[in-house]
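ARCHIVE CARD
CATEGORY: sequence design from structure
SOURCE FIELD: tokenized fold
FIELD CONTENT:
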């Protein structure tokens, strides 16, 4: 009887731990992501931020624990503003031509051009095309060998009156970027998911746990 009671209490404690982990998971991961982005931004623009801040504050202030703690987050703000500036530049014809020139010069460097091209293609896929349209236009349910999988549509074309899709199927959930690509998939092998891109990503990241909520929202 005592063994059964111990097992029951241990099981109840495990449930409490799992509930607490689920509750704390989102804020903790958010804090971790912000810290990661702040430290990454600090490694790129931190020297510039500290040099500018040093013009306005004394050495003692710059070395204080509070300022040392806040500087990486200030670097993140500066990095966001720099990205917004280049986004604004790319919105104009001559600005876009200038950025393309820089792009072309980097692609001329042997060795580095391969790495740069790969990174650029990944960022284009996630961030969108030059005209601002998303690479993934929509999501569908793809039926293959009796399996129904969520697929992200990256390209569409029509041949001989048949609409063919290029789709990406994430197979390494909760990582939405690990998966396989199917080319020239007839559209009649798919059905619209009724989900937005955000809801589709939530479906993958949550390991399908968000299915009922996302499908319900998608049908509204």
């Amino acid at each position: 009887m005592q063994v059964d009671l111990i097992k029951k209490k241990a099981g109840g404690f495990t449930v409490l731990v799992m509930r607490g982990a689920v509750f704390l998971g989102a804020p903790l991961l958010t804090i971790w992501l912000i810290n990661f982005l702040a430290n990454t931004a600090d490694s790129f623009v931190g020297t510039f931020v500290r040099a500018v801040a040093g013009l306005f504050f004394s050495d003692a202030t710059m070395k204080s624990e509070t300022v040392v703690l806040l500087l990486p987050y200030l670097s993140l703000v500066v990095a966001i503003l720099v990205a917004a500036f280049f986004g604004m530049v790319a919105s104009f014809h001559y600005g876009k031509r200038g950025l393309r020139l820089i792009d072309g010069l980097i692609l001329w460097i042997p060795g580095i051009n391969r790495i740069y091209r790969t990174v650029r293609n990944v960022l284009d896929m996630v961030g969108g095309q030059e005209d601002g349209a998303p690479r993934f236009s929509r999501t569908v349910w793809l039926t293959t060998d009796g399996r129904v999988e969520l697929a992200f549509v990256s390209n569409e074309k029509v041949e001989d009156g048949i609409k063919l899709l290029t789709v990406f199927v994430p197979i390494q959930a909760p990582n939405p970027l690990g998966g396989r690509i199917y080319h020239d998939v007839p559209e009649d092998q798919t059905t619209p998911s009724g989900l937005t891109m955000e809801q589709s990503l939530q479906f993958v990241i949550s390991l399908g746990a968000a299915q009922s909520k996302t499908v319900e929202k998608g049908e509204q």
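CARD ANNOTATION: The longest strand covers residues 147-159. Residues 90-127 form one domain.
SHELF: design records, drawer C
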